[in-house]
Amino acid sequence: MTTLETAADAARDNLTALESEAVHIFREVAGEFDRPVILFSGGKDSTLLLHLAIKAFWPAPVPFPLLHVDTGHNFDEVIEFRDKVVETYGLRLVVARVQDWIDDGRLTERPDGTRNPLQTQPLLDTITEHKFDAVFGGGRRDEERARAKERIFSLRNAFGQWDPRRQRPELWNLYNGRHRPGEHVRVFPLSNWTEADVWNYIAREGIELPSIYYAHRRKVYRRDGMWLTEGPWGGPRDGEVVEELMVRYRTVGDGSCTGAVESAATTVEEVIAEVQASRLTERGATRADDRLSEAAMEDRKREGYF
Amino acid sequence: MSGLLRLATAGSVDDGKSTLVGRLLYDTKSVLADQLDAVRRASVDRGLSTPDLSLLVDGLRSEREQGITIDVAYRYFATPKRSFVLADTPGHVQYTRNTVTGASTAQLAVLLVDARKGVVEQTRRHAAVLALLGVPRLVLAVNKVDLINYDEASFTVIAKEFGAHASSLGYEEGSVLAIPVSALLGDNVATRSENTPWYQGPTLLKHLENVPVAPDPHEAAFRFPVQYVIRPRTAEFPDYRGYAGQIAAGTVRPGDEVVVLPQGLRTRVDSVDTPRGALQEAGAGSSVTVLLTDELDISRGDLIASAEQPPEVTDELTATLCWLSSKSLRQGARVLLKHGTRTVQALVDDLRSRFDEQSLSTVDEPRSLELNEIGGVRLRLSEPLPLDDYSSSPRTGAFLVLDPGDGDTLAAGLVGERFSALACGE
């Protein structure tokens, strides 16, 4: 057996182990909680999450609804994709619109126009309103230092807050989902996946993604070292020049703070090659909100963000 | 060759664990330019002349402020040969709790010592906990060898002392390796050091890439905790009734005779199903759906097991507890016990002994068990559970002890008197 074959076998073996672990986590939640929900943005991690949920309960339908916290600053392609997925699999979709919270005064628009930090309150309000007791997220520990400390089952208090000093130890594959009324548990089945694992699995399973993950021509302008696309989030401003470039997205979030990368990768194989060669993390490359301070992610998690 | 190795680190405060982990990430190119830039900026802010690699992993605000690691963190790195999941455990105050957490899933543990200090109390304690949890392989990383001028004799003394300690804990010679390293400078981490020509063994990374993974649990008897019953009741699958779960030990094939516990019903496996199609055989770690030939009343919490080698079904057991909570345990306490997919009430009938990790001996009839202490107990259960001894089947011999009030995890439990074997070593 050549070295190359060994490496390919090792990668396949690794993906199968990660898949089994994620399926186990989905079934644990289905068995232990009353009202779970899958947070679904239409991005690659939540699409992968949904794919694994479908596998976990096959041939029965997924026993949870989806929840999309809609900032209003969406990429059209992603919303189309979201609605198509919901219809294809006969799922129930709950949408929490940030705009609704702004319209009735529960939230105030920020001066910089970004709505990413405004998602927390609609998320927590919706969890309370629907009495969701387990909320699946696509977070991975390789994304960021504060996330590396996250448990697979992460207990949140009635304010949705995460306290890194009061986490429950997580032993073997015995997950503790006990919580008191008002508390809920965030569940991260992709905790042990890396960005490379996600893409390799998407390739292996032939999972469809929103088109913006692949290179396409798009009108973009430069801001804070990132290529942002035109949109209702206030751009371009004075002095910002719109250019048409071949770009793709490595993450999909609020349009005001998610940047595109220049790319010629139009297939999943080309994306994998590009991700492997990249010297930047996906968040470092394209997420403005993580750059705010050394502990920006930790601070948002403490407030109840994912 | 397994594609995934799960490992844990252990060691005292300031032995350089975070630096070693940072070095592994850095040398396997698992750190990207923007992360490194952030570390460079933060190091300059702290007045340092070279990037402090420990800042790559100490992610929480208070960790960076105090320069210590607070909680277990999980790190990922890969080489062309293997992927690694590393449980990075802090050496600070809550040592046993964190070591237990990291070690519960580890196939190998890297223990750090400072070459200037050698094997200390904490090293002996950590090794005992790793042995207790059955971590099959140990690496002793003798760190900061640059500070002892790469002295062979000092390294050999430390390696020998640790080897003797490990063998008294039941480790065979081939399962323990000592490596002289400097995490700060990179000696023998990913690249062979020219400063230690007397060291003939592999670098740390090479060892991690090539070390055989634990004995194959496929040899063990079949154990399958039922997680969830899959009943689609759709037009396409009107009569489908499958039992979903992750195989805890052994293998299963269609036609195998099995017993459903605790009821004791015997039946046969009709098929082993997955969305990719039915399987001829599935082994430990696989999440599958099992269909049985008879229509039985089976639900979450039941265990499907090999009919030839079933576990004992009992409502009384002897167990070892690693106490992880600041609330103390006293005789007569009522707790919850989570085993596989079933949670039952339990009564602590007898607090029999406490393990002293320093002297590797036991203290009889302690008054209580406190945070980080390990003890032997007799438990009485409200309903019988199918239990294996931890040493023969870790996944079905392990359980959690939960607080019935707030649901917190109080202890890691191991079925059987695990540490009597350790205690007779010295």
Automatic annotation (TrEMBL), chain A:
Keywords: ATP-binding, Nucleotide-binding, Nucleotidyltransferase, Transferase
Lineage: Bacteria, Bacillati, Actinomycetota, Actinomycetes, Pseudonocardiales
EC number: 2.7.7.4
GO MF annotation terms: ATP binding; sulfate adenylyltransferase (ATP) activity
First-level EC class: transferase
Protein name: Sulfate adenylyltransferase subunit 2
Family listed: Belongs to the PAPS reductase family. CysD subfamily.
Keyword Repeat attached: no
Annotated stretches, region: Disordered: 284-306
Domain Phosphoadenosine phosphosulphate reductase residues, every copy: 36-259
Pfam families linked to this entry: PAPS_reduct
Nucleotidyltransferase keyword on record: yes
TrEMBL record, chain B:
Signal peptide (UniProt feature, chain positions): none
Keyword entries, A-Z: ATP-binding, GTP-binding, Nucleotide-binding, Nucleotidyltransferase, Transferase
Domain of life assignment: Bacteria
InterPro entries for the chain: CysN_GTP-bd, CysN_II, CysN_NoDQ_III, G_TR_CS, GTP-eEF1A_C, P-loop_NTPase, SO4_adenylTrfase_lsu, T_Tr_GTP-bd_dom
Gene3D superfamilies noted in UniProt: P-loop containing nucleotide triphosphate hydrolases, Translation factors
Record-listed E.C. numbers: 2.7.7.4
Ranges that cross the membrane: none
SUPFAM superfamilies in the record: EF-Tu/eEF-1alpha/eIF2-gamma C-terminal domain (SSF50465), P-loop containing nucleoside triphosphate hydrolases (SSF52540), Translation proteins (SSF50447)
UniProt enzyme class: transferase
Tr-type G domain location: 2-216
Gene Ontology terms describing biological process: sulfur compound metabolic process
One Pfam match: GTP_EFTU
Molecular function terms from GO: ATP binding; GTP binding; GTPase activity; sulfate adenylyltransferase (ATP) activity
PANTHER family xrefs: TRANSLATION FACTOR (PTHR23115)
Protein name as annotated: sulfate adenylyltransferase
Source species of the chain: Saccharomonospora amisosensis
